[in-house]
């Protein structure tokens, strides 16, 4: 397309009444007018580009097609399906678009990637929406914890003129602030069993940040050391109990 503006027109519209054989060669070229000869040269050029850009196995499926228009139609039928299939795909994507919701454990980046893929599929099937539709859909898809931010956006921004890029950028910045203030502290204790009336417990206080979904970021090396310490203290406790029992006897 970048080589000649008319190439794509020939690709989509064909060559009119120009007669070609199965190999795409002109029939009785001597009778062609200068305009037809020019059209044939351009068609031959775009056909060569198309044939060179597809695997041989794909070319064999449409080797009986004489024009690039017919070859392109064959490719569309093989990979996009018939008109009914395309309409079914479009309806499915429209349904997914209408029900689109961001999950609680998703980031804004992840949500937007899924949404953008969905929108691209709709555009390919010529079922595209306008920008304001996308903005409203993203705003409505956010989880409940985003309600304060949604209210702020609706009060300060015009959703009809706000771009998707500006909206997503604002949401990413807000998510950074949310993640910064969500870490919390927690306490862990390791109980050491003992015999007789004596009961002792070792409490190990660890301050560590929790991830947003509640999972702790524990260092395996630290866990191993704490396990070894616990085993050693249990051994000393048992030894101490034996010593006390002997003295008491």
Explain how this protein is built.
The chain has about 250 residues and is mainly α. It has three domains: about 5-80, no CATH class; about 85-180; about 190-249, no CATH class. Helices cover about 60% and strands about 0% of the residues. It contains ten helices and two strands, in the order H-H-H-H-H-H-H-H-H-E-E-H. The protein has helices at about 5-15, 35-55, 55-60, 70-80, 85-100, 110-125, 130-140, 145-155, 165-180, 220-249; strands at about 190, 200. Strands 1-2 form a two-stranded antiparallel sheet. A hairpin with a 7-residue loop joins strand 1 and strand 2 (about 200). The longest helix has 29 residues, at about 220-249. The chain is elongated and about 125 Å long. It starts with a helix and ends with a helix. The model is unreliable at about 185-190 and about 195-215 (pLDDT under 50).
């Amino acid at each position: 397309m970048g080589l000649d503006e008319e190439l794509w027109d020939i690709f989509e519209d064909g060559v009119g009444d120009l007669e070609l054989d199965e190999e795409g060669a002109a029939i009785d070229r001597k009778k062609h007018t200068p305009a037809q000869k020019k059209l044939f040269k351009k068609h031959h050029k775009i056909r060569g580009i198309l044939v060179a850009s597809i695997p041989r196995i794909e070319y064999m499926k449409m080797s009986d097609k004489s024009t690039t228009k017919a070859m392109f139609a064959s490719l569309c039928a093989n990979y996009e399906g018939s008109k009914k299939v395309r309409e079914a795909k479009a309806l499915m994507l429209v349904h997914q678009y209408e029900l689109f919701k961001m999950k609680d454990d998703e980031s804004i980046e992840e949500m937007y990637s899924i949404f953008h893929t969905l929108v691209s599929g709709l555009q390919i099937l010529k079922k595209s929406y306008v920008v304001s539709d996308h903005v409203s859909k993203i705003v409505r898809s956010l989880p409940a914890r985003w309600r304060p931010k949604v209210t702020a956006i609706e009060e300060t921004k015009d959703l009809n003129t706000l771009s998707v890029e500006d909206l997503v950028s604002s949401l990413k910045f807000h998510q950074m602030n949310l993640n910064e203030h969500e870490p919390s502290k927690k306490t862990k204790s390791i109980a050491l069993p003992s015999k007789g009336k004596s009961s002792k417990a070792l409490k190990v206080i660890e301050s560590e940040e929790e991830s947003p979904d509640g999972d702790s970021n524990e260092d395996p090396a630290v866990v191993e050391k704490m396990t070894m310490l616990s085993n050693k203290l249990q051994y000393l406790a048992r030894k101490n109990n034996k010593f006390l029992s002997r003295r008491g006897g």
